[in-house]
Specification:
Helices cover 13% and strands 43% of the residues. Strand 7 (102-103) and strand 8 form a beta hairpin. The longest helix is centred in the middle third of the chain and has 9 residues, at 57-65. The radius of gyration is 15 Å and the shape is globular. It contains four helices and 14 strands. The strands form four sheets. Strands 1, 2, 3, 4, 5, 6, 9 and 10 form an eight-stranded antiparallel β-sheet that branches.
């Protein structure tokens, strides 16, 4: 079961820097891609950014639809994340190949991924061509987290409910514990 996350806390779902699975849909075309280049941008309104290379299939879907979803996978989705980051959605149905389940989103047409821990539904408000990537700035219009995994911050209590982080190349990791100052 997913519980709604207040939009004032939505960017905290990705504040710790997890890799995400970006989903996008335009007309009958749907895709999912792995991305590590995401960032919170603003609390009010809640804005996030994702950087996507123009040659990626997802780039075209986001540009044409004006929306996307950032899905936060846990460690149990390591192989699916690797697959979604290594093949093109032009050639392969990555949902089918990775055994990921699309779920209807509340505010956008791009699907959520049922197996992920959290989701940020986003409407594109700006797109900046910067170097070899486009930075899509999305206003978070709905946010969700798996019940018991997030309460203002990631709880990190369940070993399988820790967001997956891309460390570079073929390496990934998870946060070990939550510390309070």
């Amino acid at each position: 079961m997913k519980v709604e996350v207040p939009l004032s806390q939505a960017t905290r779902l990705i504040n710790s820097g997890p890799v995400v699975l970006v989903t996008a849909k335009y007309k009958d075309k749907v895709n999912v891609m792995a991305a590590a280049w995401t960032t919170p941008i603003s609390h009010e309104p809640p804005l996030v950014g994702v950087s996507i290379a123009p040659q990626r299939f997802t780039h075209d879907l986001v540009r044409r639809s004006g929306e996307f979803v950032l899905n936060v996978p846990g460690r149990n989705l390591l192989e699916q994340v690797e697959l979604c980051g290594s093949v093109s959605g032009r050639d392969v149905d990555k949902f089918k190949e990775a055994h990921l389940t699309p779920m209807e989103a509340k505010e956008v047409s791009a699907p959520l991924i049922e197996e992920c821990l959290g989701h940020l539904e986003c409407a594109v408000v700006e797109a900046f061509e910067l170097g070899d990537h486009t930075l899509f700035v999305g206003q978070v219009v709905a946010a969700w987290a798996e019940e018991g995994t997030f309460d203002e911050v990631w709880l990190l209590e369940d070993e399988e409910a820790k967001p997956l982080h891309h460390l570079g190349g073929d390496y990934f990791g998870v946060l070990e514990e939550r510390l309070e100052v």
